[in-house]
Each structure stands twice: as structure tokens, then as C-alpha cells.
Amino acid sequence: MELIDPLMKWIVAPLAGMVIWMLKKITSMSTEMRVLEAKLEAQAEASKNAHAALQQQMSQVLSKLDGIEAYLRKDK
Questions:
Q1: What is the DSSP letter of 10?
Q2: C-alpha angle with apex 54: 51 to 58, nearest 5 degrees?
Q3: Which of 49, 70, 51, 71 is nearest to 59 (CA)?
Q4: pLDDT, tens digit, for every residue of 32-41?
Q5: 51-64 exposure pattern, b = at least 16 Cβ within 10 A, e = fewer
């Protein structure tokens, strides 16, 4: 019994505390990773939408330029 008390006090209890601390840390890091992944997905989606909008605007500008070119060629 004399040997069990110091073992529990100086080895088992600190190890148990360390394991609990590590589990909490891993859980919080896992949550942070999920949040960062969600932010990354949102940014990628926003970037894709912005790219699509830019392409649409560019095609509208090119269409208008084609109309202007056709009008100018018709006058000649």
C-alpha cells in the first residue's frame, strides 16, 4: 500500500491529467480545423462566383464592342 500511494500521486495522476489535457487540445484543434475548412470552402465559392460574374461582364463588353465594330464597318 505504501508503494501505490506515491505511484498514484507522482506518476498515474500526472499522466491522467496530461492525457485529459491532450484530448481537450485535440478536440479544440479539430474544431478549429473544421472552421478553417469551412472558411476556405466559402472563399473558394465566392472566388468562383466572382470569376463567373467577371466572365459574364467580359462577354457583355465584348458583345457591345462587336456591335460597335459592326456599326462602324457598316458606315464605310
A1: I
A2: 140
A3: 51
A4: 999 999 999 9
A5: eeeeeeeeeeeeee
Distance CA 65, CA 69 (A): 6
Amino acid at 17: G
69 burial via Cβ count (<10 Å: 0-12, 13-18, 19+): exposed
Q: Using alpha carbons only, give the angle 2, 5, 21 rounded to the nearest 5 degrees.
A: 160
CA–CA gap between residue 12 and residue 66 (Å, rounded)? 80
d(CA 28, CA 30): 5
Record the pTM.
0.61
Q: Write the CB contacts of 47 (distance below 8 Å, at least 6 apart in sequence).
A: none
State the Cα–Cα distance between residues 66 and 50, nearest whole angstrom: 24
